[in-house]
Amino acid sequence: MAFYTEKQIEAWLETETRDLPFPDGSTKPVTAFQLVWSKAESLILLDGYSMLDLTRYAAEEVALQRIDIDRAFSCVVAWLDNQRRSRWGV
Question: Angle, nearest 10°, between helix axes 34-47 and 51-65?
């Protein structure tokens, strides 16, 4: 189990807005915590997802659950990260 300092945790809770590609060819701003961006980058590097994959899944969640794109993107990243961690036994 890892332990983190208060400053590390505070840094993860800062938000950032990025313009992301969507399947319809557009880009849209998505705001998320730094922790979410870090997890998204891990999914891309370690599991072979693309940012377009993540935004496609998020767009589907927006339509299915009627939530905003920011929340949908965070939920998709959290779910995929949880699946990865389960596969690795972490």
Answer: 120
Q: Are 13 and 34 in contact (CB under 8 A)?
A: yes
What pLDDT, on a 0 to 100 scale, did the predictor assign at position 1? 61
Q: Is 6 exposed, middle or buried (0-12, 13-18, 19+ CB in 10 A)?
A: exposed
End-to-end CA distance of the chain: 10
Give CA 24 to chain center in angstroms.
19
The answer to whether residues 51 and 57 touch, using CB atoms and an 8 Å cutoff, is no
pTM score of the predicted model: 0.87
